[in-house]
Amino acid sequence: MNTRTTTALIAATTAATLLAACSGGTKAGSDSGSGGSRTLTLASVDQGSVEDVVKAFEKANPGVKVRYTTSGADQYQQQIRTQLSSGTAPDVMSVWPGNGNPGATYVLAEPGYLRDLSDQPWAAKLPDAIKAVAQYEGKTYNAIFGQNGIGAVYNQQAMAKAGLTPPDTWTELLAFCRAAKAKGTPAFALGNQDNWVTQLVLYALVATSVYSDDRDFDKRMQAGRATFADSPWTTALDKYLTMEKTGCFQKNPLGTNYEASQQLAATGRTLGIVQGNWVIALLKQKNPEAAFTLKALPAGDTPSQTVIPAAAGAGYAVNAKAKNEELALKFVTFVMSPEGMNLFAEKQGGLPALPDTGFAADPSLAELSTFVKADRTVPFMDQLWPNAKVQQTMLSGIQEIFSGQSTPEKLLDEMDADYKAGS
Residue 50, CB half-sphere, CA atoms under 13 Å: how many? Predict the structure, then answer.
């Protein structure tokens, strides 16, 4: 991954009101033409958070203007490589960690589209886990400013009205879904019309189903000693479908997009939403009076074995052919400063990538912070896959399963074939 995401797990993925391609930004003054020495161009998926960072950057650099656009992850990933190959990409752009999607670090660094950022002072300070997915062949290309987690985000007012509490086990989760459905308020909103959303529930279940007992699963996959089809991925996918059959989600997830799913959770028409922590800020924008809390989505009946997907979120890279490299590097440096990271973390409801920024985590992330400190987290699964095709096959395959056009067995076999082809 995104969404966060997860990074955004996902998102890295990043994070935002995705696919509903909003555009916006500051307008450069009449004396600053596009591409001029005092104008920076920027493409971002961080809707709802990059705006404040841009304003702070412009304030810290009088006379500088940032022309920026924000768009959804699906649309962005389709466009950015085309723009890079045609020479029309902006100076700075959102890039996901690792290798999981068309806009990821490995995918864009390999053909030489990104500037090496290893010489920047923040690069050496990245924690090892984040550095591993910000680099390609030992060089840093991605300014990853935050960490994200995926879990169940509950609307506390809606939960109180329903008289329910967050479940801690798989058995309790199904009982919770049945109770919520009986009260006329589904447990979770699910926006599977946007295909990137389809992975989040699965990732949350895979974290415990696969990695609780096998932290070396990815290493075994890379060595050819494990497969998706012959692993607890089958268990996690079965549990995803069991949640659907049990009524954990609102009617017609395939006909619901990300924006609509946010609206359901924010207004209490569902009790929550399974998403990356970045969604919390978006929910608060839609309902400032409500409070939201992220909890682990249980996949087993032993709470101490529950694991959360938590990893580096989407960051920012510099175009290797940036028209204004000096400003691009200055912007990335600002993003990686305590002020920049804290602005993003506050707006996205995440955690800064670097320690000692003075950031006070939102109370909604108390459980995520606890899991991070206790080493009960695993990276977003796609970040360690050998190519972006595996994730794309998974996303479209889940949609096909929900529409009755495919099966879990077929999907996992297809993912194995794509994984082996790119190893």
Answer: 29
CATH assignment of the domain containing 230: 3.40.190.10
Domain count for the chain: 2
For the full predicted model, state whether its pTM sits above 0.90.
no
CA atoms within 13 A on the CB side of 421: 11
Q: Measuring CA to CA, which residue among 114, 118, 110, 108 is closest to residue 140? A: 118
- Tens digit of each residue's pLDDT (9 = 90 or more) over 30-85: 333 344 469 999 999 998 899 999 999 999 999 999 999 999 888 899 899 899 99
For 319-358, how does the pLDDT look when each residue is reduced to its tens digit (9 = 90+)?
999 999 999 999 999 999 999 999 998 888 788 988 788 9
Check whether residue 192 and residue 261 sit in a common domain.
yes
Q: Which helix (H) or strand (E) holds 125?
A: none
Q: Name, in order, each residue with C-beta under 8 angstroms of 87's C-beta and a sequence gap of 6 or more.
A: 321
Within 10 Å of residue 62's Cβ, how many Cβ atoms?
Answer: 7
Look up residue 88 and give its two tokens. 């029309």
